[in-house]
Amino acid sequence: MKYKIFNYITVFFSVTVLTTSCVDNEDLLQVDPNVETAGSFWKTDQDAIEGVNAAYGSLLTDGTYMRSTPLLLDARADDARTNSPWGSMYNAGRFNSNVADASIYGWAYETYYQGIYRANQVLTNVPGIEFKDAALKNRILGQAYFLRGLYLFHAVNMFKNVPLPIDVAVYHPQKTQAEGWAQVIADFKTAAELLPVSYDGISGIDAGQKGRATKGAALGYLGKAYLFTKDFGNAKTTFKQVIDLGVYSLVSNYRDNFTTANENNSESLFEVQFSRSAGGVDLGWGGAPASGWGKTSARAITYAPRAFGWTDVQPSWALFNEFHDEKTKTGDLDPRLDATIFYNKPGGMKLYGKDFATFYASSPADLNDIFCRKYQNSDGEFADEYDWRSGINERLLRYADILLMYAETLNETGDTPGAYDYIQMVRNRVGLPDLATTKPRMSQDQMREQIGHERFLEFPLEGHRFDDIRRWGWLENTTKLAWLKSRDAEFNSYTAGREYYPIPQLEMDNNPGTKQNDSY
């Protein structure tokens, strides 16, 4: 198997999937004494690590990073467009998700709470287990706090006012978004205190295992939660803690962040572990995992170029054009363009072993279109993505993001000159000129705009752009909203309140008193 974190994902409580924060009485069945349950399972350190591995398992299914979560994060931003024939996917990009049909967004909501429930099983039961290795116990609890924080981060960020389960009870009322962010921050704080910087050089059954949450991952997400709540002082301090760990650095080849060639590299703070060789070959659509499930992603086929997959998501022309705004020191185009987008490049470009211009020669519309290259198995090893089984890890948090978020906090706390150095670290990798020379002495507002540009080109199709748009207040700014509409026609469908997805109807039905988000 690719990573040992896969070994025990289908543990006993995989059958106890909580699709909402409340269940009906008919669902509360008597327990068969011959079947292992939560009451009989939690006995040893091996049980504990199998339990936390199952909490990781909720990152791998369709509601989360197999497909739905990247779609929900990317579809609404001006770096992406969707013309999917599937209405649920098409409407996700046009702020028009159907309250009566919870496809995609409802699956995400369901799986976040499945993951939260699994993490809460660990946090409820592991403290009572006697460990010979106290450090291992702390690491397991730290991972559970991190995973609960991560699932809650997504729920609060995308659905606004949501339940906040911190135990295994079946009913949890809806809370405010402020309360949600407070819980997210608390979970990441605790995780950061308990987690190691690395799993190398430790003893225990988790020694050397890649893919597990670390102190850096917890601090990175803690800083991000502070940033999203405009607590710039705490965000600045926290991001600096990540930098000062001294264990992260940018990889020299930008594209290595989106292929199988260099997974879990020095730039990665946390990534979801996918593999073509782990598990079976069935697709993990959701619910209770089965023994035949693989650990693969459907992102590649969903975003793939025409005739190599479904092409449900494509880069925007605004993104393509903005990559041409500034040349490198040697007069070349920004190399992130070719790492991000397939296009009819002068001089030629290969995709899946085919020449772009030759392959699309008989289809002028495709020949003159642009397609996603990030997270595609397109270097010639595979003919296409139609087996639905990509093994490329999803990089959720990169060191480049830490550097640019830290620069943002410096700017927001009055140290605009200090922001230059951290922005330039990211620019240096792709050979862009010294920003302090090309744009010296920027004002705070000018630096805000520059950071927006830098983030747009560094993180397209990685699920960050719409979060940035929303947290920067651009949707409430008439000038900015008009600008977004001019770049991406999908913003013409935006109405106030639709920056969040609707609360799924099943949650409304099963959790009395739940209020729907505005404008739905």
Q: What percentage of amino acids are in beta strands?
A: 5-15%
Kindly report the average pLDDT value: 93
Strand count: 10
**How many alpha or pi helices?**
21
Report the sheet with the most strands, covering strand number, pairing sense and barrel closure.
2 strands, antiparallel
Helix content: 40-55%
Strand order of the largest sheet: 1-5
Q: What structural class do you assign from the helix and strand content?
A: mainly alpha
Task: Describe the global form.
Answer: globular
Q: Spans of 5+ residues with little confidence (pLDDT < 50)?
A: 1-34
Radius of gyration: 22 Å
Task: Compute the separation of the termini in Å.
Answer: 45 Å
